Here is the input.
Amino acid sequence: MIKRSVDLNKYLEKNKVLIIYGARQVGKTTLVKEYLSKTDMKYSFYTGDDMQFAKDLSKCDLYLIKKIVSGIELLVIDEAQKIENIGRALKLIVDNIENIYVIVTGSSSFDLTNSTSEPLTGRKNLITLYPTSIEELLNDNSEYDISRRVEEFLIYGMYPNVVSLESSEEKENRINEIRDSYLIKDILEFNKVKKSQIVIDLLKLLAFQIGSEVSTVELSKNLGVDNKTVKRYLDLLEKSFVIFSLGGFSRNLRKEINKMEKYYFYDNGIRNSLIKNFNNLDTRNDVGQLWENFLMVERMKKNSYNRLSVSYYFWRTYNQKEIDLIEERGGKLHGYEFKWGNQKTKAPKEWVEEYDNSDFKVVNRENFLSFVTNRED
Here is the structure.
């Protein structure tokens, strides 16, 4: 059992819905069941796959809802996005049942976000659960052991039931299963996806462009579909927790690129599975991309689990000066450049001159632990 960094007690409030988002297989159900095994509250656990329960709840009948929650203090609904009218039903519960706690999980934010955003305004707390973080692995591993496993993390990713496996063959088989049986299946089940191969081909194109600005016009040409379709599929892939985007940071439009975005994968293993490349790092030409993707996601995990309000960007000028990651937090700018090697890098002169209220740091294999965890250098 990997001890997760999320403490549900910090998010649970009476008569508010705690929504736990995240891709399939990142451990949402395990996290909730671990919490339930220790709570003193009387609870009921249901799933959106329970057709009778889903049908009853979707009726939004207050009399029936009162029967469902009768005698309990905590209602838990797993895979809540599968239930029609879920937002209205949850609103009825928290508005009409005194002192009730509610937890729901969603493996995609397609329908759950749309269904709950308006009905649950001011009535919900949100958690995004990611694949296992380095911080979480340090609960049972030394910093030395984690540093020795970096190549493994870059190749096979951080899904809980991948990092816990021993052999490379087991890891590869498991990440391929997650790709096919969960993530891709989840996306293709969404009723607005008509051409499944295009989505897979789009993901493959993105897999080769990590760290580079992505042109939706170029993607549409390569895929043979219109630009609107590409943008819709990109949005769909973000809402299914497969990829996320970074926009360009700019306060000087004459010099800085800000109209295109970069895309990263929430997990390196999924990315490598899509392009069918689990080769060792010493035989690859994409180590820099893997390292950048890994650090970007691990940093997001750290900031999210520490409940920090952070805006993320990349920075690049038209004359090719660049910084991989810009964080805007607390009214200050923080620039980070990711290097697999130990070469020394200075902040670009243009950045220093334009943004004097900023700092800059190079993150490499020697100091990355302090960047992705709460440990000090």
Notes: The radius of gyration is 22 Å.
